Amino acid sequence: MAVKTLTINNQLISAHEEETVLEAAQAAGIHIPTLCHLEGVGDVGACRLCLVEIAGSNKLQPACVTKINEGMEVYTHNDRLQKYRRTIVEMLFAEGNHICSVCVANGNCELQDLAIEMGMDHVRLEYHFPNRKVDVSHDRFGIDHNRCVLCTRCVRVCDEIEGAHTWDMAGRGTNSHVITDLSQPWGTSQTCTSCGKCVNACPTGAIFYQASSVGEMKHDRDKLDFLVTARKKQQWNL
């Protein structure tokens, strides 16, 4: 595989031609904020938090789905990008019902971490207060759509790793939401294997273990990493 040379924040780095800007940056120890990105599953560029500037382009590009090119000049942090990213995080808070003080993921939430990273001490946008449901029909898990940020990580791990494709997206615009099967209650799903991968993939407290109380929700990413790499490393035989 051919190797390309590019600069990120004026730092000269090399990467394989099929790598994305995000992968090249991470390999070089350069941090780019993400929310919908999850190691081991395909990227969709949904959250737009990984937007970067590329010399010669007026458009900001999502680093997770932008392939590198020879001689590319990338900038990952400046005032313009910081402004865009903070606005995106504020929109996520304003468009949902994120009450951190009563959330099972309080203190273990990627959305909280991003708000801190962006220096967000208040939301400048008008709150929508949407009327969203909570589904606890499953005997082990539950989903609170008020906390969902539509990252589709649950959809992708269920499809690409578990192979069940229980989760999907429905609706458009502000009515977009994740569904199980054909918008049936999760507890009635005939495809769900109760594996819990969606719970560990969720960046917030939207998908949770039942009986979890405030601040108890912790995601175990190591389980997902093992499932993604075990076959390649021959850690089990199928």
Brief write-up:
The chain has two domains: 3-77, Ubiquitin-like (UB roll), CATH 3.10.20; 83-232, 2-Layer Sandwich (Alpha-Beta Plaits), CATH 3.30.70.20. 24% of the residues lie in helices and 16% in strands.
In sequence order, what are the helices and strands, one letter per element? Answer: EEHEEEHHEEHEEHEH
Main beta sheet: 5 strands, mixed
Output mean pLDDT.
93
Which fold does the CATH topology of the largest domain refer to? Alpha-Beta Plaits
State the share of residues found in helices, binned by percent: 10-25%
Your description of this structure?
It is a single chain. The chain has 238 residues and is of the alpha+beta class. It folds into two domains: 3-77, Ubiquitin-like (UB roll), CATH 3.10.20.740; 83-232, Alpha-Beta Plaits. Helices cover 24% and strands 16% of the residues. It contains six helices and ten strands; from the N terminus they run E-E-H-E-E-E-H-H-E-E-H-E-E-H-E-H. The protein has helices spanning 21-27, 79-95, 110-117, 153-162, 197-201, 221-229, and strands spanning 3-8, 11-16, 51-54, 61-62, 73-75, 134-135, 141-144, 167-170, 177-180, 207-209. The strands form three sheets. A five-stranded mixed beta sheet has the order 2-1-5-3-4, with helices on both faces. A three-stranded antiparallel beta sheet has the order 6-7-10. It is globular and about 55 Å long. The two termini are 29 Å apart.
